[in-house]
Amino acid sequence: MEIIEIECSQINLKENRELNLCLGFFDGLHIGHRKIISSAVKLGHTGVMTFDVPPSFALGKNTVNSCLTSLYDKNNLLSKLGVEYLYVLRMSKELLEMDKDSFINKILKKINPKSIFVGDDYRFGHNAEGTPEYLSKFFTVKVFDQITENGKKISSHTIRDLVRDGNVKEAAHFLTQNYTINGLIAHGKGNGALIGFKTANLELDFPYVLPKVGVYIGYATLLEKRYRAMICVSTHPTIMELNDPIIEVHILDLDEDLYGRYMDVEFVEFIREIKKFDNIDKLKAQLEKDLEKAKNLLK
After folding, report:
1. Averaged over 211-235, what is the pLDDT?
2. How far is CA 149 from the centre of its chain?
3. pLDDT value at position 189?
C-alpha cells in the first residue's frame, strides 16, 4: 500500500481518476467502516483518506485515552483489506481552518477520484460545514447509513465506551477482531519476576483507549509470533500503589529478554477485578489461578 502524506502548507497531489476514495477518521475500523471500504475495494482501485491524529488533538482536547487505532494500526489493517493508497492529512491549524470549498478544490479535486465513499455522519471543512450532500455536487458520492444492532448504533464512540468498561469481548464483535494496542516493552520494577510471574511492561507512545483496571486474557505478538498472555491493567495495590494504571503482560511459553521490542497486545476477555491482597503469597496464589484460566480458555 502506498502512503501519501498531505501537508496543507505544500499540497502536491497526483490525479487518480480510477480511484474509489473513502473519507473518514475510521477509528477502530469497525464493521461499519469495513462495509464502506470493502464496497469500494470490490469496484477496483481504492484509497482511504484519513488524519494522522484526531482534530481534537490539534485543539488540545482529549489527548489521553482517546483512540482505538493508531496510524500504524490503520496502515496494517487497511493493507489487509485491499486498500492501495492511504492519504494521510497531517493535522495543522491551517487544515482546521480550511473551509469546505477549499478542502474540495485544494485536495479532493487534485486527486479527482472516480467516486467517493462516506458514512452518513461524515463532515469536513471548518466547523464541519461540509456534508455528504454538499460533496455530491462535485463528485459521485456513495453514502452509507450507520450500522445498528438491536436498535443500537454502532460507532467508534460506542466501542470506546465498551473498552473503557472492560467489555473487550463485545468490542471485538464490532471491531471484527480483538481490541489490540501496540507499544514498546520497557523496564519495570521487576516485582513480577520476584514472585514467579515475569512481565513485559508496555510503554505506549499513542493515546489508546485503555480497558478498565483489571486482569485480562489475550495474546501478545512480537517477532511475528503470537503467544498466549495474561494482561494486567493495574495500579499495583498489593506491592506498590501507583497513581496511574500500567499495562503488564505475562507471556505464556516465552522466557526471553524482550526489552526494546515493540509488541501487539490483544485483549480477549476480562477475567477479574484488581484487588489488594493481604500479602504477596495470596497474590501469587490468585495469579496461579489466573494462569490456569488463561491456559484453559486460550488456544
Report:
1. 93
2. 21
3. 61
Distance CA 100, CA 136 (A): 13
Number of alpha carbons in the 13 Å side-chain half-sphere of residue 218 = 30
CA nearest neighbour of 115 among 36, 50, 4: 36
* DSSP letter assigned to residue 2: E
Cβ atoms of residues 154 and 147 within 8 Å: yes
Strands (E), 52-189: 85-89, 115-119, 141-144, 148-149, 152-153, 179-186
Query: What is the C-alpha to C-alpha distance for residues 124 and 87, in angstroms, rounded to an integer?
Result: 15
Helix (DSSP H) and strand (DSSP E) numbers for the chain: 11, 14
Q: Beta 152-153 vs 148-149: how paired, if at all? A: antiparallel
Q: What's the grid cell of residue 218?
A: 489475550
What is the pLDDT at residue 193?
55
Which residues lie closer than 8 Å to 190 by C-beta, 6 or more apart?
none
pLDDT digit string (tens) for 4-52?
999 988 899 999 999 999 999 999 999 999 999 999 999 999 999 999 9
CA atoms within 13 A on the CB side of 150: 1
Q: Work out the burial of residue 12: count CB atoms within 10 Å of its CB; fewer than 13 is exposed, 13-18 middle, 19 or more buried.
A: exposed
The predicted structure's pLDDT at residue 241: 63
Q: Which residue has the cell 482505538?
A: 68
> What's the residue count for the chain?
299
Kindly tell me if the per-residue pLDDT of 71 is higher than 70.
Answer: yes
DSSP 105: I
Q: What is the mean pLDDT of residues 82-106?
A: 95
CA distance 45 to 28: 22
Nearest alpha-carbon partner for 173 in 5, 31, 293, 37: 31
Q: For residue 208, how far is the Cα from the chain centroid?
A: 7
CA atoms of 243 and 234, how far apart (whole Å): 10
